[in-house]
Amino acid sequence: MFTVPVLVLRTVRPMASFTPAFLLLLLTLMGGTRPSVSQSTDSADPKCHDWGNEGAVSVLEGKAAWLSCPLFSHPAVYNYSSTQSTGRNLFWYQIPEGQDLEQPIQQSSRFCKQRERLWVLPAEAEDSGQYICLLRNKSSCSTMAMHLKVLRRVQATPASSCEPSVATAPTRALIPLQEGKTLDCPDLKDAASMSDSSPTVNWSHKCNQLPFWNSDRQQRESSLRFYTMVDQYQGLYYCTVHFQRGGKQLNFTRAINVTAINPTRMSKTPVILHPYTDRVFHVKSNSRATLACQAKVPFVVEDPSWDVWWTVDGQTLEKLNDHRFSQSSRVLKDDHMDLTVENVLVIQDFQSEDLQRRFNCSVKNARGFESRRAVLEEEASLPSVELGCGLGVTLVLMLLLFVVYHVFWLELLLLYRSWFGTDERHTDEKDFDVYISYARNGEEEQFVLSTLRGVLENEFGYSVCIFDRDSLPGGTITDETLSFVARSRRLLVVVSPGYAARGSQALLELKAGLQGMALGGHLRVILVQFKPVQRQDLVRELRKAQVALALVRWRGDKSRELSSRFWKRLRVELPVRRGACKGEGASSTEGVLLRLTSQNSTNSQTGLISTA
């Protein structure tokens, strides 16, 4: 049979759109001698089967590149050796970027055919486009296309400014911790098959060229050897292959993403962490129920596949065909590719009949399988109305108690002290309940002698010590003052603008009280503000102690009534007196003796003054 060599054309439009006249014209222009394909003019010649497009190859401009015919990506269908034995020939065509017509690729210094590969040595920008490999003989014809994209260096963004640009995606290498592995540069064997001499390989990691300054990683010939893997060695490794072809110095760069995994000596059997044994899920009828399952899935290098799923009565949710059931998974933790996975089973509109079903969580990988049943228990429904009413009443009562306490807290505190407080007269050996210190001038002295003393002694039953009234004549003022203060349970300081002038009796009393309070804690100092005083007008001792002392303010006529806040606040600071009432202090023997002593002292001092 006489055959005429013609050029096979492919456009974006179907091939049937070309007319025979156009084919003859193209044949005439090409000279009819292109050895691309021999296509018979006989109508019995087979029609080419177009398998479409598969994949794309990216390469940097100026780097070596090659295309493998995708027809041979399925060895069970097409094998290069078997196709040669059946008389099939492989032809390559190119459709440049922006064009529609196929152009046959001829053997040249830049384009080299090697078995099922087409080498581009090196790639240039105009080489971008679609490449078609056609496999045919007299009885069959198949064609398939792939895309080549030549990137300029500015188009390829490296991981950092000091790392090389790579057009192809990084390959992955998994190395167990504390173990070793040897890395070979990808596509090195392909380069060796085309090189006129043995290729050389340069390795780099994080901008560092070999050697990496340690004995854990070393280059052995063209390979990179890891002796002991640690976390710091993870990351992108770059290998640049240099080889020579036809007098040209060519190279290409590949990237390997090195990832550390847990040592192989660790158990790789999957384990269910939750639900643990005897774990009970509480569910409610006619509501949404969720069952959570957590499992640890170790990574297996040989077969990394794994799964975590729920079954209902031994059936997966896909086979159950019940829209009420759904599940979702997420990874909770990734520990060197050993995963902790959570799978949540959601049951919409849970029914009481579902309690009789078997809910199992299962996990598997290449090394094992585990399944665990979830135990369900119906939760008793709470009386929402009764509970709401009870909570409402409780909230109202708490609010009322808060208001009552906020308004009547002094009365409540006094009531508590009267019931549960300790009477200090039975726990110490002191003679006086209160020692009053004040400025010796007309207004303050009148307030102390007529108001404070009268109410504390006559109304509340306290034993009160006033130096000018209770001291004996002829004694030393300092010794008497210190003795009275030490024998008192409280020191009541009446603060006014003229209080505690330097060298005064009041200053001595204040210092004695503060010293007794600081050293033994057996004496408490109470401040009664008779008149407003600026802080800068206070003596230094009083300014320092003011922040730690109780302060009760006298507000004039508002404070005269015994039911006023002043007297309640003062009673809180004074010692506890159970059943204190008017006249109680005078009825006791101790009170009588103290009053007689005070009266004698006053008379004696009056006589001395008169004599003088």
UniProtKB/TrEMBL annotation:
GO MF terms here are: hydrolase activity
**What topology does it adopt in the membrane?**
Single-pass type I membrane protein
* The keyword Magnesium is assigned to this record: no
Q: Where is the signal peptide?
A: 1-38
Per the UniProt record, which residue ranges are transmembrane? Answer: 391-416
Q: Which residues form the TIR domain?
A: 430-574
The listed locations are:
Membrane
Pfam families linked to this entry: Ig_6 (PF18452), TIR (PF01582)
- Key word rRNA-binding present in the record? no
Q: Which UniProt keywords apply?
A: Disulfide bond, Glycoprotein, Hydrolase, Immunoglobulin domain, Membrane, NAD, Receptor, Repeat, Signal, Transmembrane, Transmembrane helix
Swiss-Prot/TrEMBL GO biological process terms: signal transduction
Q: Which PANTHER family match?
A: INTERLEUKIN-1 RECEPTOR ACCESSORY PROTEIN, INTERLEUKIN-1 RECEPTOR FAMILY MEMBER
Q: Which family does it belong to?
A: Belongs to the interleukin-1 receptor family.
Q: Any idea what this protein is called?
A: Interleukin-1 receptor accessory protein
* Gene source species: Oryzias javanicus (Javanese ricefish)
